[in-house]
Amino acid sequence: MKFRFLLLYAFLFVHSVFAQVILDENQLPIDPEQYHSLTSPYSTTLTFFYNLREDNFEPEEALKTLRLTDQSEIEARRLVVKLKQVFDGNGVYVRINEIPNDPNYIDTLHNNQPRFFFDTKRLPGVYLEKVGDDWKFSAFTVSQINELHQDTYPYGTDKLLNVLPKLGNEVYLGLHFWQLAGLFLLILILFISHKIITIILDKGLLYALDRFGYGYIGEKYLLPVAKVISIFVIVQLSSLFIRVLQLPIEAVSWILLLLNAAKPFIVTIVFYKIVDIVAMYFAKLAEKTESTLDDQLVPLLRKTLKAFVVIVGTLYILKEGLQVDIVPFLTGLSIGGLAFALAAQDTIKNFFGSIMIFIDKPFQVGDWITSGDVDGTVEEVGFRSTRVRTFRNSVMYIPNGKIADATIDNHGLRQYRRFFTTLTITYDTPPHLIQAFVDGLRKIVESHPDTRKDYYNIYFNNLSAYSQDVMFYVFFEVPNWTEELRARHEILISIITLANQLGVRFAFPTQTLHMESFPEKKTLVPEYNPDAKAYQAKLQDFVSRELKKKQDLN
C-alpha cells in the first residue's frame, strides 16, 4: 500500500500543478497572438485554457471565448473560471494538438453544423460554435455553467474551492500546501468514515438483527452486503473530494476513471451477494412445499441470477465506468450469438426443455418414471439433462429436450397402487367353499390398513383348463414401492393362511389320472363336508383369530 502511494505521489510530482489541460509546449504556436485568437476551435481552446493557467492567469482574455448575453463583467469572470473548474472536476482530458484548426470546421459526426464537442459523454452540453468569424462557447453552454458546476461539486463541496487555497499556496514537491493539506484531510475523512461505518454495521446492525432472532442471517448474508455498501460510500466520498483538490488533469482523469468504474463494480458485487439472500428466501419457501423439484430449482435459479448479474454488471462497468462504447460489442455479440445458437441447437433445446419441466412439473425428485427405455427413480433435474437411477443401480442421463417431447408414465404420482392376480383353485372345490373363500378374501382387504376400501373386485369369474379362477383386484394407498411390496406381502400371507384354514387347494397345470380305489388304498380326492355351515364356521374362526389379531396389532 505504501509503495502504491509513493508511485502516485511521484506521478503527481513530475507533472506540473499548472497543467490542468494538456498543453504540449512543443505544439504551442510561436506567435503569442495565437493565445488571443478565436479563428478556429483550436485557437479558441488554446485561448481559453492558456489564459486560465496559474502562471498566466488572464481571465479577461479567457472570457472572450464565451458567448455572453447580459452578464456583468464580474459574473462573466466567475463563469469562465467555473467552466474551467467543470473541465477539471470531470477529468476531461483535453489534448490541444487534437483540436481541429480549420476555421470552417463542420461536425459531420453529430449534426453537420459548425460546432465542436469536447466530450459528448461527460460534457454533452459544452461545445464551441461559430458565431460570425469567431468560435466561442455557445450561449447554451454559458447558460448551463452554474448547473454543471453544481453537479460537478455537489453537497457544498464547491465552497471548498475558495476555502482550501487560503491554507497556503507554497509549493512542496510540485503541489501547493493547500492541496497537500486537502489530501491529508481526505485520507483522514475516509479513515474516520470507514471506522464509523464498521462500528455501525458490526455493532448496530448485528445487535438489531440478534434482537429480532435473525443473527445468523445477518452475520452470514446481510453483513457482507453491508460491508460492500460501506466501501461504495468511501468511493463516493473519494470521487466527490478528489475534484476539489484540483490535481493535475492527468491524475484526476485516471483517478476519476477508476472511481467511476469502481462504483458499478461495487454495485455488481452487492447484487451478486443479494442473490444469495433471495435464494435463501426461496429455499425456505421450497422446504414448505411437498414438491422436491423446487429444491432442485433454487440452486439453478441462484446460478442463473448470478450469471445475469455478472453479465449486466460487466456491461455497465464498461459503459458507465470505463466509458467504453459497447454498441459495437453488443452488435458483434448478437451476430456471434446467432451463429452460436445455430451451432448449439440441441443445447438450447435442452435448456428450454428444462424450463418446461420446471413449469409443468411432470415429475419431481424421487419419483419413479417410465418413458421408453427409461425406467427408474429421478435423482436430479438440471438445465441440460435429468439424472435417473435405474433399478439396476446404474445412472441414466437423459437430455431434457427429449424428456419434454416424450410420453412419461409417472408412477410416483399414483394415488393408489394396483395389485391384480388370479387365485386358481382346484376343480374339486365345492361352490359353498368357493363362496366362503371369496368372502374371506373380502374380509382380508377390508381389514388391511393400506387397502382402498371403496373400490375392489374379488369374484369367482372364470373356469380355465385346469382350475377355477378367482379374480383378486385391489388397490394399495401407500407412498412408495417399498410400502407397496410390504402390503402385498401381508395380503398374500393372509390369503395363504385363509386357504389353509378353509382347506382350499390351489391348482397348477397338472394332468390327473383317476383310478378306481383299491381296498387297501385311499382315494386321492379329498372329502369335503357337504354342509356349507361348517365352512362358514371355519371362516368365522379365521376372521376372529387371524384378522382381528392383526387389527389389534395395528
UniProtKB/TrEMBL annotation:
TM stretches of this protein: 177-201, 221-242, 254-279, 324-344
Domain of life the protein comes from: Bacteria
Span of domain Mechanosensitive ion channel MscS: 346-411
Signal peptide: 1-19
Principal place of residence: membrane
InterPro entries: LSM_dom_sf (IPR010920), MS_channel_C (IPR049278), MscS_beta-dom_sf (IPR023408), MscS_channel_2nd (IPR006685), MscS_channel_C_sf (IPR011066), MscS_channel_TM-2 (IPR011014), YnaI-like (IPR045042)
GO cellular-component term (any): plasma membrane
Domain Mechanosensitive ion channel MscS C-terminal: 422-504
Molecular function, one GO term: mechanosensitive monoatomic ion channel activity
Membrane topology type: Multi-pass membrane protein
Pfam families, per database record: MS_channel_2nd (PF00924), MS_channel_3rd (PF21082)
Gene3D superfamilies documented for this protein: 1.10.287.1260, 2.30.30.60, 3.30.70.100
Alphabetic keyword roster: Cell membrane, Membrane, Signal, Transmembrane, Transmembrane helix
Subcellular location(s) of the protein: Cell membrane
Family: Belongs to the MscS (TC 1.A.23) family.
Name under which the protein is recorded: MscS family membrane protein
Species whose genome carries this gene: Belliella buryatensis
